[in-house]
Design goal:
The protein has about 200 residues and is an all-alpha fold. Helix 4 runs antiparallel to helix 5, helix 6 runs antiparallel to helix 7 and helix 6 runs parallel beside helix 8.
């Protein structure tokens, strides 16, 4: 059993435990503590910045990026890579939708600084941003570009995903556990994709 298989197993166990905690409301104190921490310095200026950050997980940003990835992939004769990015993020979104329906968690009863419908767990913006960032980081690390450039680009993408997740809590539309669930789900899917690709070399 390789590291990725072990990682997928541990993350899957963590997700199951998290869902149990969510369903039994045993994670409420954690959610409240994180929200209180992030919203303690709330201001109009900070809110505008956070709204800009959360856009990077919005469908209005993600869809054009996916289309662009396919176009760039085709232009660079890397159509498989471009298509995989799009397919991976779409599959992640589909799984998110299924889990939201199954778990049926209401949105937090706090001040909503943006309007969102639907259920709360897991955070769709977080999954979208983390899935997109994750697959792009994997492709960057696999590429032949300069090592320092790899580090810089990968760090920017990882930070973007993290900030999108935190922005959802600040804006009051998700619990911290929704965001944590989004990161765990994205990580499971990414490790699964990497494991499959390393065995078959699809891209």
């Amino acid at each position: 059993m390789n590291r990725k298989t072990i990682g997928i197993g541990l993350l899957s166990l963590a997700l199951i435990i998290l869902i149990i905690l969510v369903e039994t409301n045993l994670i409420a104190s954690f959610d409240s503590a994180v929200y209180n921490l992030l919203s303690s310095n709330m201001s109009d200026g900070l809110t505008n910045i956070v709204k800009s950050i959360t856009f990077f997980g919005d469908v209005k940003f993600i869809v054009p990026v996916l289309i662009l990835s396919v176009i760039i992939g085709a232009a660079l004769n890397e159509i498989k890579s471009g298509a995989i990015v799009a397919i991976f993020v779409i599959v992640s979104d589909l799984i998110k939708t299924i889990l939201k329906i199954i778990i049926h968690r209401p949105r937090p009863e706090v001040l909503h600084l943006v309007q969102e419908g639907g259920f709360s767990f897991p955070s769709g913006h977080t999954i979208a941003a983390a899935s997109l960032s994750g697959i792009l980081i994997y492709l960057i690390l696999k590429s032949e570009m300069n090592k320092n450039l790899k580090i810089v680009l990968s760090s920017i993408l990882a930070l973007m995903a993290l900030l999108v997740g935190l922005s959802r809590v600040y804006l009051g539309v998700h619990y911290a556990s929704d965001v944590l669930g989004g990161f765990i789900i994205s990580s499971i899917l990414l490790l699964t994709l990497i494991s499959i690709n390393e065995k078959n070399e699809y891209f």
